[in-house]
Amino acid sequence: MLTTQAAGGWPAAYSPSSMEPVTPLELRLSGDGPAVDDASAQDKTEALLSPFLAALRQSPELANPRGQSLQMRANAVSNALRQCRAAPDQPPACATVEQQQALLRRALKQTAQDDPLRAPLNTALMNAVNLQSQMKQWMQDVMLSDGTPPEMQDW
In this predicted model, what pLDDT tens digit does every residue of 18-55 receive, in sequence order? Predict the structure, then answer.
């Protein structure tokens, strides 16, 4: 790994695979590091919103909601979200739970109150929020544990 001296005396580490600077945590916490580009993330979400909603409206599971449960329709939304790509040859556009939540929130803002997509979008958003909460809780449990699985603590 290559290192150079950065502002504030902290070494700037470089990833050997990409050679892009990696900002140390101390710099990010102090505010001296590069700012997060929220505008580009929002623009990316905006660019994906119209094709995503169009794909949902053309989906056979969501086009005819009769005879299907809300969870089945929410699963169809989640599947469409995982398959959403900026271009056919690119990786999924919403790779993280945060990106999925952002796109679902934007989609909910674009739908009317009486739109049949609103309930499955809302359910898919709540599923994503729950997943993020469960992952955060699991990571906290792992970090605070002594390495002993919870099943072994009861013995």
Answer: 455 666 655 555 555 445 455 555 666 677 888 888 88
Q: What is each CA distance from 92 to 4, 65, 75, 84, in whole angstroms?
A: 34, 26, 17, 6
Dist. CA 150–CA 138, nearest whole Å: 11
Quickly list DSSP for the chain: --EEE-GGG-EEEE-TTT--EE--HHHHHHT-SPPP-HHHHHHHHHHHHHHHHHHHHH-HHHH--TTS-HHHHHHHHHHHHHH-BSSTTSPBS--SHHHHHHHHHHHHHHS-TT-TTHHHHHHHHHHHHHHHHHHHHHHHHHHHS-S--HHHHT-
